[in-house]
Amino acid sequence: MGCNLKDLAPAKPIEISDLSGQRVAIDVFLNAYQFITSMTREDGKPLSYNDKPVSHLMGFLDRASILVSEGIDPVFVFDGSPHDLKRATLNERKTRKIEAKAKWENAIIEGDMPAAKKLGPQTAEYTPEMVAETKRLFDCMGLVWIEAPMEAEGAAAVMCKRGLVGAVASQDWDTLVYGSPFMIRNLTAHGTRKFGRVMQAEMISLDEMLDGLGISHSQLVDLAIMIGTDFHPGIKGIGPKTGLKLIKEHGNMEKVSSVKGFDLPENLEQIRSLFLNHPTNEDPVPISRPAVEEDLIQFLQIERGFGEGRMKRALDRLSSVGKLSSKSRPTLFDF
DNA sequence: CAAGAGGA
DNA sequence: TCCTCTTGG
Question: Is A234 helix (H, G, I), strand (E, B) or coil?
Fold first, then answer.
């Protein structure tokens, strides 16, 4: 997932309030996997109710309601159909998942619960049914979601380029390679403790990054391709540091390859254009609405067994910023 | 992941 | 009060 540009990207700490009033694009799959793999039971499988996983719904309910209460208007972006060039990456993930599943089953048979708890997350699946449920949740919350033609990260970056969202919240450096002018890291983890330190949200400006590195966006794309992307494994022996040096010295990947003597990717032009001209549709981004209390309670509390306390917390967060409507008690936003 | 519990 | 651990369904 993404290439390692961490050392090359100048990240400025920001406060959540800096983003108040802005639309922020969020990659759904990335977050969904985070929830499914971290909100687990003893056997490492996601929390569930009547044998149906609920971790994704819980995570998005909490996360989205917090963002809304901070004045942020999230736009959730689902992945579309992957490009053929991503096949190898996806197959590799699938193989790993199958291996992990075999190990997990073995651990269960042997009653080795610590091992199962570790392996379970590696078998995590975000099924079409779970995707549909996530969309239903966003609908209940009145939040905007869109389906990318291809890569969610790419579509989000293009939306930011077009000014449809103020920034893209992501952990994936591909966001910048796709040309998103602004990328926010640790948006939702802001203020939480990880490994003893308090997580801080940070903003990266693509222009500032390119200025600082002294390269153009298309040179960043070539650099990323050399380091390795979802569409190509990259060039062995070239990481962020030497890659940057080589691109600055020689200008582009063709020159670097002739100097260093490696083969160019077969589909170099195609890969470049996936980053430089990512396919998107021209549909306008819908406008978010207030959540509907009854719909949320019906779905999560009645159908999926959510506790009253969790429901109340989420509803309170929404209503604190006037983003909760009720069929019996409409808000001003309904008019 | 976020909240709450329980310990330092 | 702060920090770590556990729970959530």
Answer: coil
Q: What pLDDT shows up at residue A107?
A: 93
Chain B, protein-covered positions (CB within 7 A)? 1-4
Residue A41 domain boundaries: 6-214
State the CB neighbour count (10 A cutoff) for residue A263.
7
β-pairing verdict for A291-292 and A324-325: parallel
Which nucleotide's C1' is closest to A65 (Cα)? B2
* pTM, 2 dp: 0.94
Per-residue tokens: A161: 């380029």
Each residue's pLDDT tens digit, A41-52: 999 999 999 999
Nearest DNA or RNA nucleotide to A59 (CA to C1') = B1
Q: Is residue A195 part of a domain?
A: yes
**pLDDT value, residue A330:** 62
CATH number for the domain spanning A88: value is 3.40.50.1010
- The pairing of strands A197-198 and A202-205 is unpaired
